[in-house]
User: What shape does this take?
Amino acid sequence: MVKKLGTITIKKVQKFLFFRLLILFFVSCSCLWAAQPLYLRGDDATWNQKTYDLWVKGHVSVVQHLDDGTQRRLNCDALHYNRLTDKITAYGAVELTEPNGDVLTADHLELDSHFNTGFLEGMHVFTQDAARLNAKSATRKEGNSTVFLDADYSPCKQCTDGSVTWKLEAESVEHDQAEKLIKYRQVFLVFKGVKIFYMPYFSHPDPSVKQKDGLLSPAFGMSKDLGFSMTLPYLFTAKDQDLTITPMIMAKQNPLLATEYRRRFRDGELSLGGSYTRMRHNEKKKNSYTTIPKKSRWNASGAMLWHMTDRNRLSVDLNRASDTTYLSRYRLNKQSSTFSRSKNLTSTVNFEHFGNSGYGTVKTQAFQTDTPKTTPVVLPHARYRYQTEQFSNGSYLVWDSSFLSILRKRPILTQTGKQTYRASSGVTWNLPYTTSNGHLFKTSLSTRGDAYMLQYYNPDQPIVEKQHKYDNHVESRLFPQAAVDWRYPLLSTYDRIDWILEPRGLVALAPQNLNRKRLPNEDSRVFTLDDTSIFLPNRFDGIDLVDAGQRGVLGVDNHMRWGQQQRASIFMGQSYRFDHKAVVGKNQGEGRLASDYISRVLYQPNEWWVIFMRGAFMRNNMKPRYNEWGSSFGKPMLKLDASYVHAKRGLNDSTSMISQVNWQLSSEINENWKVSVAQIRNLKRFQKGVLATFAGLTYQDDCFETKFSVFRSHYRDRDLKPDMGFFLQFSLKNLGSFTPTSAPTYPGSLLTNLR
Assistant: This one.
């Protein structure tokens, strides 16, 4: 006998409740469903007591609550369940939502009541990361494995015509949920509708996995120096850690093996890396002054960050190589993006303390250079800075103390000693004050004491063996200084133009002749007089040199804004010596009477054009001692960036003049395509020419990215020779990507980060 329960409607509330209670009672009494009960809803239900068949039609919904608190939901037009076979069959607009968020649609579905084993036809899977898998049919086994036949997979968004950028087509695809792995057999990589690559077997992690053991995307390159090259990284993973092993095969050199290990802790992270190769051909030594790298070449690196407490942090950055040109030649680990990279390597161990009003650091540094015997080791450099809260009159104190120890195997004659120990401590009283009519004053009174213990340091002549007075000696210095800084900003608005005119002045007073020859200069070798430093009481970055004597500074700053993004600014300033005593070299921008004219100009007439200039012009002839020019013209569709740098010989101990121009023409053709061409040129007399040329093409969409770079360099340094080549690297979403090496790229212009 067949008993029809009737159609459930909103009006028949009592019948609906009776039907729902009956279904829940039926499900809960089933021994097969006792562990994970099913909750059913529908418009119409029919129960056959003889055959134990249940039919539910119209907006059918089945919810299965799992032990972990998640649920699985099945929606369809009609559902049939047989209690004897424990089979659920769903028809019409079948949609199954998994606990992880994946959505499966099918024309027809047959599963057991646990949703563990069954068969599906005409199905589509939409994962939580927007990937899709289509198949003619699929078989689900024991809830841990689903095999799809005649399937294709793609993480790309569908175009309006239904096509995708790329997909994997396979005879069969198995989703192993236990291993969280998707396995393909007889698979083709289809790009833009064209089959471009075949593999008998391929696998990758499912979207729920952040990382998994396996091969990452390869990279290809070609250069005149190394020949054709290919890198094929392999990733090993474990909980909170991974290891990447990357072989690099080169046509003109022996293979190179690079490794990188990473681990994350609760309070920090660790990274270790290295590489090794043995050169096929060794360079010939041209003269006695040139050091040729050995055949065995390697590098080792390590980085650690440990948040010891909320206020204490320890960081370690270690870098070492067999020679200083190894990383530049093989372009490993993105040591630098340009050809003109610094070949010196720095290793640092740094402890930091963050207080409420103070900051302390203890740092140790070692350097790898081409002159190891005179290269310093900093062991250690400790510093602590403390600032008090403001007193009742608005003033505050700043206390700054430091200790420095520098060791060398051999002193640099007439410049540095073999060992230098320095202790320094000073206090500064600052009083900012604003008058009733808008004048801004800041008065500072400071005093600092420096003590040195030196070994084998003679600034006048080379050390000879019997000059024992230079074995060890002690020097000291007291540096008091008083300074008053004045500003008077004036605001005016005229015809929708906001104009701020700000005259500025500074008077700094200190004793003379404090930069004695008996004191070495380890940390103040670079002196830059520009718009950012001219109004500082002490313009030296380090401690060994001080801004002694008496001087005054006058300048004026103009800022104008109009419209939405239109602006202009002009700064002019100059310092004057009251004591007629020079504190820096004659080629560094300030003499005994006055400094160069310091200027800065910024002009942006609209959102797509900006011009910037910074420079120092000599007083006697207005020729530039140094100047920088930069301009950015255009919009992302087509933009030109250019910069020019000029510096005279002798500026900051430079032995040669610098005259160089960089430019780049780039275009974002659309949201997917970008192209650029760039060049670096040397403009020095008798050395004019191209230093490097770059060109790049990038394609990127939601699931695919490829970069193609072409370069040509003209640099020479031992085994580094003029070179040219290309580099190709691509990344497929969900299939992994890694870039162990890279082609040199454009370093940017003066305005790269200005806008």
About this structure: The two ends are 82 Å apart (CA to CA). Helices lie at 13-29, 326-330. Residues 13-29 form the longest helix (17 residues). Residues 1-35, 333-341, 750-755 have pLDDT under 50 and may be disordered.
